[in-house]
Amino acid sequence: MKEANTYSLFSTPILDKIKEANIYSIFPTPIYISKLDKKLTTLELKFIEKNKKNHFKNEGNITSNNNYILNEKPFLNLKKELNLRVKDYFKKVISSTDAITPYITQSWLNYTETNQYHHKHAHPNSLVSGVFYINCHKELDKIKFFNDGYKTIKPEIKTWNLYNSESWWFTVKTGDLIMFPSSLTHMVENTEGTNTRISLAFNVFIKGTIGNNKNLTELIL
Q: What global pTM score does this model have?
């Protein structure tokens, strides 16, 4: 009786015969990246610098004590710009038929100096989170996301790709806006640039009515 070769399926000669295969990515995680056309005014920049003095020590960097910063008068125009992008995200990603309106809840400033970092975290009590980059090193600054969760089977990886990666990062530049599901874990690794990396982070929730009354799924927010 011929002994079965349990590895023959993965041998190179057999794989080389596969001429074409399609791989589809279903249920992807949306990462929305845009750029604000407007430049910050002198008033806005002075306000950002003022709030740097009124901060608390976060894990790895510092954060403004004011965590409704977009409600302040110097940022009213900036908030309008960000709200337009939030609505665009919900239109293109959520695309709901329900009568809902997204709105920014909390917002705050982060200041990260050389060799500082922003700890790994997610944003509870929020649907979508965003980061607007006020000052970045265009070649060195980035944001890193994680595919968390227990892995039942965890083989050693030969080549990392979108399907098997446990983390993924994007470079960011001054003026960039990035939005993502608030449940997505993210962090900023130790910064290498000599600039002060400044970002404005915010959370988004919804108001209105979702679900269906007769299906007993109605939720009025």
A: 0.89
- CB 198 within 8 Å of CB 109: yes
Closest CA to 180 of 150, 149, 143, 210: 143
C-beta separation of 195 from 113 below 8 A: no
In three-state secondary structure terms, 85 is: helix
Is residue 16 within 8 Å of 61, Cβ to Cβ?
no
pLDDT in tens, 39-54: 899 999 999 999 999 9
pLDDT tens sequence across 79-93: 999 999 999 999 999
Q: Who's near 110: CB < 8 A, 6+ residues apart?
A: 58, 61, 62, 63, 64, 118, 197, 198, 199, 200, 201
- Burial state string for 109-126 with b = 16 or more CB within 10 A and e = fewer than 16: bbbbeeebebebeebeeb
Q: Using DSSP, state whether 178 is helix, strand or coil.
A: strand
